[in-house]
Amino acid sequence: MRPLGLCALFLLIWLNTALATDNAVYPVDVTHWWVSLGEQASIQVIERHLAEQGIVWITEAMAGSGTSRYMDVVRRRVAAGNPPMASQVIGYDIQEWARQGKLANLDAIAEQQEWDEVVPFDIQHLSKYQGHWVAAPINAHSTNWLWLNQPQLSRLGLTVPDTWPDLIHMLEAARLADIIPLAIGRDAWEHTLLFESVAAGAGGAEFYRRVFLDLDPVALDDAMLGLIFQRMSQLREYMDEGMNTRSWDQGTDLVRTGQALMQVQGSWVNGEFNAHGMIPGQDFACFRFPDTQGVFLFNSDQYMFFKDYPVDPGIRNTFASTLMEVELQRELNIATGAAPARVDVPRESFNQCGQRAINDLRAANMRRTVMGSIAMGNANPGKVKEAIYTVVSDHLLGRISDAQAVDRMKAVIINAARSQGN
Predict the structure, then answer these.
(1) In the record, which residues are listed under signal peptide (predicted)?
(2) Which SS3 state, helix, strand or coil, does residue 299 take?
(3) What is the domain partition of the chain in residue ranges?
(4) What is the pLDDT of residue 22?
(5) Looking at domain 143-297+374-419, which CATH architecture does it have?
(6) Which strands sit side by side in the sheet containing 370-372, from one edge to the other?
(7) Per-residue CA distances from 321 to 7, 136, 246 (Å)
(8) How high is the pLDDT of residue 422?
(9) How open is the CA angle 111-114-118, to the nearest 5 degrees?
């Protein structure tokens, strides 16, 4: 990571160049965490569309996927009086910054582009603070996906797993064929991403919403929580020791190269496969996690804008409005593998998995089964998310039993409900 002062130096160089040549070039300082191959392709789409508006961004990219280590860098910059103009952000981190009064109000742009009409309500819930737009959502990743290596799937004679027994049958077939059944990495957010799909599949949409979004202690069900952790223990048997040192994208590479059969991950995997020129139905397959058909667990990448950054408001508004344009969201999400954050983007040019994601989002939006991802911070404030991380990861790594995990998860929900006055 380069020193923070270097950003200011680059901005001065760009500004002096613009003034000397009379070109309308507006350099701005932006932070993001898109550093993998597929993510870099996505960033290039945004950069190109902004460049057409005369906006050139000086980027500070840090791997972190919206984790605390990424946001700690942003916090240090803000505390030092050197905020970026815009920062990538997900979930309840938006609310934290808005509560501190750090974010610019985007209501005028939102009204002009009719964001209220085209962005699903559950995403709007995170993009707004006290009824005002403070962030611009650029996609709607879904996390309850299975990603599979198509040649291995065909070789093993396997088909779509509609139910939990179907999934176990697939994993067992992979183990007998001496390939890694289920690729996963070391991070607690990955473990929790797997957990949320298991929870939504076992308990259904209503259980997931009441327990993990509403934090309703009345909805806690010992038997259901026990079933969820029993299923997580079953899945543990199909993971390899390499998970202890692996990142999420290294797990994706195992599936891509056929060393592993499947990965439970968000639709950013589609973007990684796209970047490698892979074709769904030929090189890979995408299925909904068993028993979560009709549910869209989402993670929406967004951009927030710090109001203390010294820039003409018109440039900031142009940046935000460009992010929300139909064509940018179409091109961007072909690259990211996600559904656009707008429900009115044409789907024809997306690949098979992308079109399925768009269709699923629109259908789930009508049924009110678009629900925030626990793992990606779209379901709960940071302290609750981290507490769930600890329980889920300790359990998946075999540090606590199923029964202990149930008790600890109940305590997390009850304590969170009390702190929020539920």
Answers:
(1) 1-20
(2) strand
(3) 4-141+300-365, 143-297+374-419
(4) 44
(5) 3-Layer(aba) Sandwich (3.40)
(6) 141-142, 296-299, 370-372
(7) 24, 8, 38
(8) 61
(9) 145
